[in-house]
Amino acid sequence: MSDSWTSRLLDLLGSPAAMAGSYVESLLPAAAAQGLPVDVLLAEADIEPEQLALPGYRLPLYKAFRLLLAAERHSQDDLTALRLAAAVRPRSFQVLGYAAMSCTTLGEAIQRLQRFEALVWDIGDTRLELQDQWAVLTWQPRLLPWVPRQAVEMALGGWLAFGDWLSEGRARPLRVEFRHELDEAACSALLGCPVQGNAGRHAVIFARELLDLPLREADPHLRSLMDAQGEACLANYRLHSNLANEVRAALCTGLGQGDCSLESTAERLQLSPRMLRRRLSEAGLSLADLQDEVRQDLALLYLRHTDFSLLDIAYLLGFAEQSSFSRAFRRWTGRPPAEYRRENGLQGPEKGHGGPA
Which portions of the sequence form the region Disordered (predicted)? Predict the structure, then answer.
């Protein structure tokens, strides 16, 4: 197992970046329609299906990516992410989707995408560049130094599917570009337009005149309501909507430094201990439960992707003894850690993970 790959996974697990649970849930029927074992995929990614249905739930990006990669592994199809993205509809994007749907023109809808994308997932920047008669919609990672290429394909594929739905098939792109290598012919056939791999950017290129294309569901009143709701969600995002993942990231850092106390966690979040305690209580969260979740995620990562001894892993997770770690792992998984490692250990990067996006 390469140190660089382990470092990437640790960076991802220690990031507060998250994806809307509603987005993931909306694509599960499409996964089932493709013959994928949805329950198995969720279990492999350590995702509780009931969580995805909770209003406002933010799925840690680490688990969302694991789910997407597991889907591709089970399907043995490099186009899995693009096929799933074809099912994106307004419901998938929630506030962003309904705000965009109610806009008057495609250009206005793209403005909502740029403004509210973080409410779907908060790892990238979407930019619109105008070049003579062309419009170029680009995406690049912001919070993370890399993302799996499947996630990039899901993002751009979702744009295409949503734009096609909004415009009733009238807003067809001229070309789609990806920075990573891919099967250009197969992707072009699936997306219905030329696709270029090994490009200098992740982008969708279309005729500039399409920005003025009227949309079928234009509703100024609904757009105003969704804009207001979106702005409110953004204003309270970090320490309200995404509080659980912010705390998880702080706890991940704390475990590495040997201090996960309420006081140290609050300091990392630039809050007072009293304020953190209150916000956790208001959100129905427990610092102890969140620490338990982080320990479990880290334990599974270390057992799958490193050759660290069980004693080393126990210390890295803040346990005083290996026996305490073993008892906790049995509680999490129903199995001893040594048995789990024998069956799942030392997994390397899966085909197509790719480098920095």
Answer: 338-357
